[in-house]
Design goal:
single chain, alpha+beta, Beta-Lactamase, Helix Hairpins, 4 domains, six-stranded antiparallel β-sheet, five-stranded antiparallel β-sheet
Length: 493
């Protein structure tokens, strides 16, 4: 008998140790809702000591909106459910509510039915769940309100989710896209490009800026720029998030601009040719008068004829510039690069323009290697260098210094022409390489007597780009000089 009591005592002690060391709360409730027993962990959960709640109605601590749910759960247990569970809210001693998951069973103790269960604090989990739900609601709000067309597909292109903008564009209802394949909407001759894009996405690679045409079920065709992002789960691409931006209007404008530019080029070319015919006559007859009949005229008439001749030469230069520009725009100019010494060409340009520099008492210095062989068209690059050097002389103050340098960097040679003259503002730097981008310098206190058409830098830009290089200008602002640079590739174009 003593041995049996010892065993029972030991079992009770083990049971008590077990109860005291688990995180969850253990509770015993009779069918009237009275708490018969509750483990010490109740203090950590709702701030009450076990003796403060034992003997009280469990409903005293439950959120009013959850009382019916608990009552119904107890009834289910009475009616035969072996194990029942519920999520409800218990009031903390400080007044706030915590979320609790309860799981229990109906047991018979001393011929009396009771509910014994385990209660677990799931407040953090529920708060995280609410945040996630809110986040999903915000995502859905942005998803549907986005003006761009957003859709999710599987790796075969089947539509899984579509935002409202795309539904409106396609004229579909919310469930109307089910079973449709996004690839079936694409039209045009870029099917191979589309296939390559799909393969890249299946490999887990993000694809940006792809342009496609798509047709709506109503037969309307639009153009889109699409970014596709693979959604990877467990190391595999499961879905694809696609964002399509409507570029139909932009592409239409681009096509119109190309057409207008083509018309402008043709007009310039035709006008230039038409102007050359009467100009040749004027120039020819002026030369005839000066060469064969000069003795018939007095000094004043000869001076006028000289002015006419000078004007025709200047007009011829402008017309030739316009014609060259139109040919560059149309791509009709034959590009024939060969191996040439850029150092020799730079020295040659400086020699030809020393007379012009001398009229303004400007000094030109060269910081270039003795010889540097590159692949370029000599006549075209001569035109670029000469124009940059003439500009430097034109916009430098008398007795100014102009410096020409070369520098190798990566696969290119940078050729620069630097002056310390009038300089350029930020707006002027954006404008200067555009067609007819001439900048007015008169009335700014500079002694400038060399005319220009505003086409030189535009033509230079076209020539440099044909060589695979680029051209730009550096200037810190007005009266701080300017440095014009352009690149030529070290390797053959």
């Amino acid at each position: 008998m003593i041995e049996s009591e010892s065993i029972i005592k030991e079992s009770v002690e083990k049971y008590q140790i077990l109860i005291n060391n688990i995180i969850d709360v253990i509770a015993e409730v009779d069918l009237g809702g009275i708490l018969m027993y509750i483990s010490p962990q109740v203090y950590d959960m709702i701030g009450y000591l076990p003796e403060e709640v034992t003997g009280n109605q469990v409903f005293n601590y439950v959120h009013p909106d959850d009382k019916d749910l608990i009552f119904q759960t107890i009834q289910r247990a009475i009616e035969g459910d072996e194990t029942v569970s519920i999520e409800c809210r218990f009031r903390h001693k400080k007044g706030h509510y915590i979320h609790v998951f309860a799981r229990g069973s109906l047991v018979i103790i001393n011929n009396k039915p009771k509910m014994i269960g385990v209660l677990r604090d799931i407040t953090e989990y529920k708060e995280a769940e609410q945040k996630l739900k809110k986040s999903e609601e915000n995502y859905r709000l942005l998803f549907n309100r986005s003006p761009d067309f957003i859709y999710v597909t599987d790796t075969d292109g089947k539509l899984l989710d579509v935002n409202q903008s795309l539904l409106d564009r396609m004229g579909l209802i919310q469930e109307g896209y089910r079973g449709l394949n996004s690839l079936d909407f694409f039209v045009g001759d870029n099917y191979e490009e589309l296939t390559q894009t799909v393969n890249l996405i299946r490999q887990g690679k993000e694809v940006k800026g792809m342009e496609f045409k798509a047709k709506t079920p109503q037969g309307e065709i639009y153009e889109y720029e699409i970014n596709s992002v693979p959604l990877i789960e467990e190391g595999k691409v499961k879905k694809v998030l696609n964002i399509a931006h409507d570029i139909t209007d932009r592409k239409n404008v681009e096509r119109e601009l190309i057409e207008i530019n083509q018309l402008k080029t043709e007009l310039l070319e035709r006008t230039s040719h038409e102007l050359k015919t009467p100009l040749i006559s004027i120039k020819g007859f002026t030369d005839l008068l000066l060469d064969l009949h000069k003795e018939k005229f007095d000094d004043e008439v000869i001076s006028i004829l000289d002015e006419v001749k000078s004007g025709t030469e200047q007009l011829e230069t402008i017309i030739n510039g316009l014609l060259e520009t139109s040919l560059l725009d149309s791509g009709k100019i034959q590009f024939k690069p060969s191996e040439e010494d850029i150092s020799f060409l730079l020295r040659f340009c400086v020699k030809n323009l020393r007379g012009l520099a001398k009229t303004r008492n400007d000094f030109i210095s060269l910081d270039i290697p003795h010889k540097m062989t590159l692949n370029f068209e000599k006549e075209r690059i001569y035109e670029v260098i000469s124009h940059l050097l003439i500009n430097a002389i034109k916009y430098s103050p008398p007795y100014g210094e102009i410096k020409i340098q070369t520098e190798k960097t990566n696969d290119f040679v940078i050729i620069s022409v630097q002056d310390h003259g009038i300089g350029l503002s930020e707006d002027e730097k954006k404008k200067i390489f555009k067609q007819f981008g001439k900048i007015e310098r008169y009335g700014q206190g500079w002694d400038i007597g060399i005319e220009g058409t505003g086409m030189g830098l535009y033509t230079s830009k076209k020539i440099v780009e044909l060589h695979g290089g680029e051209i730009w200008v550096e200037s810190e602002g007005r009266n701080k000089g300017a440095k014009f640079c352009f690149t030529l590739p070290l390797k053959k174009v």
